[in-house]
Please model this.
Amino acid sequence: MALFSSRTGKRPRIVPALDDAELARVLGRLSKRNGGGRAADMALVSSLLEETGDDWDRRGHRVSVLAEATADTGIAAAWLDREPQSADALVFHSWTGLVRGLRDGHLEDAGQLVSRCHQAAERRPEDPLPWVVLLGVSRIERYGQNDVNAVWREATGRDRWHREAYLQMLAYLSPEEGGSSAAVLDFVDVVRTRIPANAACAAVELTAAVRQYQGLLAQGGVRAMTAGQLWEGGQIAAALDQAAALWAKPGFFQHAAAQADLNVLAYALCAAGRAVDAHHVFQTLQGTVTPWPWNTDGPALQRFEQHQAKAERGRQGGVGGG
Model:
């Protein structure tokens, strides 16, 4: 499966599947069915997850994207009713419940969701995804740090660099969800030196920096006016330098959500006034857009296009741009 397309000139578009052609095919068929033929819909999802096997990174990507796409369709509930002992059905049902919980700010039945995660873990002990879902549940239920650390060890003990596990923990620790900036910094400091440069979770530090930057902008006033200084020195600047030098190189990233991380990099470079560096990242993306981080101050596609055009002008002018 090619990580990036070699075609050029593609208009920006939001592509939930990213470069996963098989996932895109299933999403397209589910969309065309428009909720009809529940058994066929279940078969599409079930077959794709079975085909994914024990590629935990791609399994996490596919489950999360499918859960987002079908959270309100009833497919997960129907599948679990039909196959109550299936680890895939249990994980998928749990993840769709988490999607709705994160969207609505509360879980329909936290106890039942937790129970389903444990059932899935019992049926497929090597799978990190039930534990990743529990990290998400911890965000909504605000479980204590010791309990969350225990879940974290279970998830990363099965897949040390699982991207979604790191993002869920980062969100749990964030001040927006009841944590603190200090907790985020401590987490990033601990994991920074351990994560391989091309690991699936390599973008956790830059993701934290982008969230911090956006938080400063949201506060308005002086903090918003000086937010750009975040990128100018210290460890954040070093992390951005390393990412700019490595991430867009052909073959450097192999994980399923690499294009999502490149969106984060392009955004960060634009925020830092480094349009020339961002240009190469935009070229690599070939118009594949993720809603976040672009959608925090307007429609994602519009903001992506604006920054992409600015990067092109910067490259032609040989300046970074602001």
Remarks:
- Confidence is low (pLDDT under 50) at residues 1-8.
